[in-house]
Amino acid sequence: MFGRLTHLEHLTKFAILYSLILIFTGCSNVKNIRPEATTPNIQSSITVMTFNIRFGCGREKLGEKTFAFLSKCTKKYDKIVAAIRSVDPDVVGLQEVNAHGASLIAKALNMNYAYSIHGTGYRWGNAVLTKFKLLKSKRIAIGGAGTGNRSMVSATGLVNDKTVAFTSIHVDHKLPGNTSIKKILGYLNSLTEPAILIGDFNIVPGSSKAKMLLDGTGLIDSAAAGEFGHMGTWGGPYGKRIDYVFIQPKYFNVLDASLVASEHQYASDHIAYYTVLDMK
């Protein structure tokens, strides 16, 4: 006959059960570290940035992508923080960041954050940093080449007494077909709240994948909405544009869009891009 479970055994079983729930529901952690007294809610516009930070390695040994290098490179988080701070955004989507880097950058900027590792085959993922209060977050798998399985993290924030889903995404350029785009479309179309898609999509404006994403959701490219479509985010300010902030025009107007100033364009192999939005 089995004896009664001890308090420690109960706690252990609860911890295991909770871990399984997190795994199967795809939830990721929300960290509201910004003091409530300085957490905004009501404001006329919001600034949203996307930034692939290359694991904090800057432009050291450009093209080198092995984890052995990325884990041991000289981290340049100070330059990443300076680039972000130069714009003072309300929301930042980070890509190619690990949990330590997301925490360090968020604390330096006094921003709440949600982080999610990609999944199988990866040691880094995506993060959403924001001045707004975060209510919840979720990790959504979008597929990757080979044995890798990339994901996006969607964090729900409170803005103007409304919930908005801020989603940080990094699409695998090696994955053939439209698997990732279909996964993104499926998630976006399941939402009942406004959403902003932020990230490194590894597609260029006007491509078939870009057209599929926009046509399937009613999204618009915040850079192409005005006179900003020529800006490059990879290979210099006149290179390829593969980093985006996609918005829903029924919820937002684009007021401005730009790259960070030239002195901050070498903090990573990508250039941080941002847009200023008016919430309808």
Task: Tell me what the structure shows.
By secondary structure, this protein is of the alpha+beta class. It has a single domain (30-279), classed as Deoxyribonuclease I, Chain A, CATH 3.60.10.10. Helices cover 23% and strands 30% of the residues. The chain has helices at 7-25, 67-72, 77-85, 99-109, 179-190, 208-215; strands spanning 29-31, 45-52, 91-97, 112-117, 125-130, 134-141, 151-159, 162-170, 195-200, 220-221, 243-247, 252-259, 273-279. The strands form 2 sheets. It has a 7-stranded mixed β-sheet with strand order 1-4-5-3-2-13-12, with helices on one face. It is globular, with a radius of gyration of 19 Å. The model is unreliable at 1-5 and 7-26 (pLDDT under 50).
In short:
By secondary structure, the protein is α+β, with helices and mostly antiparallel strands. The chain has helices spanning 7-25, 67-72, 77-85, 99-109, 179-190, 208-215; strands spanning 29-31, 45-52, 91-97, 112-117, 125-130, 134-141, 151-159, 162-170, 195-200, 220-221, 243-247, 252-259, 273-279.
